[in-house]
Amino acid sequence: xxxxxxxxxxxxxxxxxxxxxxxxxxxxxxxxxxxxxxxxxxxxxxxxxxxxxxxxxxxxxxxxxxxxxxxxxxxxxxxxxxxxxxxxxxxxxxxxxxxxxxxxxxxxxxxxxxxxxxxxxxxxxxxxxxxxxxxxxxxxxxxxxxxxxxxxxxxxxxxxxxxxxxxxxxxxxxxxxxxxxxxxxxxxxxxxxxxxxxxxxxxxxxxxxxxxxxxxxxxxxxxxxxxxxxxxxxxxxxxxxxxxxxxxxxxxxxxxxxxxxxxxxxxxxxxxxxxxxxxxxxxxxxxxxxxxxxxxxxxxxxxxxxxxxxxxxxxxxxxxxxxxxxxxxxxxxxxxxxxxxxxxxxxxxxxxxxxxxxxxxxxxxxxxxxxxxxxxxxxxxxxxxxxxxxxxxxxxxxxxxxxxxxxxxxxxxxxxxxxxxxxxxxxxxxxxxxxxxxxxxxxxxxxxxxxxxxxxxxxxxxxxxxxxxxxxxxxxxxxxxxxxxxxxxxxxxxxxxxxxxxxxxxxxxxxxxxxxxxxxxxxxxxxxxxxxxxxxxxxxxxxxxxxxxxxxxxxxxxxxxxxxxxxxxxxxxxxxxxxxxxxxxxxxxxxxxxxxxxxxxxxxxxxxxxxxxxxxxxxxxxxxxxxxxxxxxxxxxxxxxxxxxxxxxxxxxxxxxxxxxxxxxxxxxxxxxxxxxxxxxxx
Length: 683
What we know:
Elements: H1 4-12, H2 25-49, H3 53-88, H4 107-118, H5 121-126, H6 129-136, H7 149-163, H8 165-184, H9 196-204, H10 207-241, H11 249-269, H12 271-296, H13 299-320, H14 332-357, H15 364-396, H16 412-419, H17 424-456, H18 466-487, H19 491-527, E1 530-534, H20 540-549, H21 554-570, E2 603-607, E3 615-617, E4 624-626, H22 643-647, H23 649-682
Antiparallel strand pairs: 1-2, 3-4
């Protein structure tokens, strides 16, 4: 099928280049201003309170969590519920692309990329420390005694609650919306277009859309800056654990600058060179690290625990899904659930765009179930290998947790390596590999983040200039460094504050996006044809059963069956023999099948379900008619001169209609010319 661009190229005799991506100043400038202002405030806040900065940032974090946290709990749980509804209802049959389109990547490659998306600095940072923390500081709602085997089993389920379905439900909603609006509806790949069904194209292209993209950029930058800060803290702890460097602000700054420089190099080398190589490298190293710990640890026990941890997780989900910490005597929900969910809300534009990009051509059911289950399985395996090993080692031998039950989140992973039954040399190797994995994970995150926010600042165009991507990579590194220096010893608390604050406006966008998607999905389901088979005769099994029931011997049964087949194939009443999208034009007639064979007389019909209230009844004849059953499409009639629109389902339909109209016009002109010529001859 010739696209709109191809038609234009054919008319000029030369291919037309794609429009150049232009920087959207109404998005770029405000986003940079907001980020700089927030970093300036954090720096001033830390300098203002000096030695008391930790307590001041903690108070600020608690205030945000107390007043906004309940909203995050509701939004995240609603996002997961929306995903399950979309996957398990008729909505799941909708394809993210044209109806005749098939997945761009094979199932194996797609799952592999989802697995890689499921890994990150967060899992490496929390794989050991979080279960150990829950072991000695369980949530009050769990009602388990701290430091016991029961608390240890529950700790894995509690960690999985933060890294499993709820986290990926957030990413799946954003990815689903982007994939649907871009691949199916032909809109630019930008967060603002998720809300077009609510606001309309005019508002989306105005200041309203600019605000939405600014919010997405700011939230993404601070989400990735939080990831950078956590990764750098752990790298510093690893270097200190080996005795190579002493922790200091200078070391943190050098590490941030070094990692940012690597991310910038990856940006310059491009997606298919730098990012692909780094992604393959860090996935291989992370998998190698997990396999080594699995083999050196209690291997059989860990394999048994994998199944048990899955059960613990299933029990934990309903237990913690709606816990907001109200009336609790601890800050567990604020420290863990709210921070993690806010962090994931900030990351959603970044990860969502990635999983949308690799999922073109898949059905919504495939997309949602894959995006939820594959990364959750990765998290389950990771927490089983590292978390269960750490919990078991602590309960039997100790040494991983302080006397007061405190867990050093930065050094917990390296302490676990030291407890494994291996030589000091191998412990050093494992520690170095872990540091490299953490570094590479951030480099790939910084590269992808710079690409995503640059796409948003260029009105959704995927091909953007390299120098603007470099700018965003440097800004993310600067943000991470300033947040770490502003917090001092309370650096992690500052990172929590940035995520909690940055996620607030994004959560509103996601709620509106779900409303918009619900509206569009209802339209899709209402107008989606359902194909049914109509049989005018019984199946072969039913024919044989009927013949056997009415005869006494096998010989009589065979004779009766032959008579039935002869009558069926030769009496001219063979039933409907054609395939049609309507009942009109269907004919019946004698079959061409040889006598004595069972003909395939199925008819395929495309039907649309019509609600009872949309039908009318003629009072004179009793005939049923169709009343006002039209469906309002809030995005109908909009055309975009972009590659995304040309390749989408709506764009393909639009260009097909244009082609049909042109062919019809040509045919009409030829018919008119022929008639004019006939009239001329007659005169």
